[in-house]
Structures are given as C-alpha cells and as structure tokens.
Amino acid sequence: MPAVFLALALLLLVTMTAGLLRIVIGPSPADRMMAAQLLGTSGIGVLVLLASALEMPALIDVGLIFALLAAVSVTAFTRRRIDQD
C-alpha cells in the first residue's frame, strides 16, 4: 500500500509542475491565483500521502497548517482585488 501512496504523491507532484507553468505564463492574475491554489491543495495532498506512506503523522500537522495558510492567502487576494477595482 505505501507504494500506491508514493505513486499518487508523484502524480500530484506532476500536477504541481503544471501549476507552476500556469503561474509563470498565466494571462491574468486570477489564473495565477488559481494555479497557486492548485499548488497549495496538491502540496497538502502530497503531505497527507507521504504521512501515510512513510508513517510520519507529523506531516499531517504540516498539511493542516498549509491548509490554513491557503485559506488566508485566498482571502488576502480577493480583498486586494476588490480594493483595486
């Protein structure tokens, strides 16, 4: 079972590279923010999968902290966009 978790973590890392490309070439700030959300969500998924595969429960705590930071970053981005308009 740990091999399956590691394979899924690798798949998520591949999607994260696609998100990095979208951040670099994204035509609009909204596209870039959505790609950043993809990176955050995928990163949390990778951490949870690695926690299960490597039997390191502390990685789940790190993933929860990243989830909180991702929510705050979206709030800050939308506030910034509203203030600019």
TrEMBL record:
Keyword vocabulary terms for this entry: Cell membrane, Membrane, Transmembrane, Transmembrane helix, Transport
Cellular compartments annotated: Cell membrane
Parts of the chain that traverse the membrane: 32-51, 58-77
GO molecular function, one term: sodium:proton antiporter activity
Primary location group: membrane
Coiled coil: none
Membrane topology of this protein: Multi-pass membrane protein
InterPro entries, sorted: MrpF/PhaF-like
Cross-referenced Pfam families: MrpF_PhaF
One GO CC term, this protein: plasma membrane
Membership in a protein family: Belongs to the CPA3 antiporters (TC 2.A.63) subunit F family.
Name this protein carries in UniProt: Multiple resistance and pH regulation protein F
